[in-house]
Design brief:
By secondary structure, this protein is mainly α. It is about 75% helix and about 0% strand.
Length: about 120
């Protein structure tokens, strides 16, 4: 499905909130994933476990935020896309191999299109 222009209705606020939540989710997830890998490299199982828990929590928060914004969106294309992002993020785990970067990139590009002014 291709988006052909900005989303309508309350898209400006929903996009701003979704972008902020997505940015925070990515930043937190990557930071904790880095902490987890560092701890694993040092053989610190406790720190590795704690970082994994925080990374998983960041994914859950990010996924839920996308679904919350989807529920608020009055534009059908934006609502559908935010739900797709929420579902995709929800399938990710605190493991670099679980991240489908091509799929996330494609979803982000669609979001950028819908959220352009």
């Amino acid at each position: 499905m291709t988006e052909t222009g900005p989303a309508a209705g309350n898209a400006k606020q929903v996009c701003a909130d979704a972008m902020a939540a997505g940015g925070k989710g990515v930043t937190t997830f990557l930071a904790e994933l880095g902490n987890m890998l560092n701890a694993a490299g040092k053989g610190d199982g406790k720190a590795e476990y704690e970082a994994r828990q925080k990374a998983e929590a960041a994914l859950a928060t990010w996924s839920n935020a996308m679904k919350e914004q989807a529920a608020k969106a009055t534009d059908g294309r934006l609502r559908t896309l935010l739900n797709e992002i929420g579902v995709e993020v929800g399938t990710m785990r605190a493991d670099i191999d679980s991240v489908d970067s091509a799929k996330l990139d494609q979803l982000q590009q669609r979001l950028d299109t819908l959220c352009s002014e």
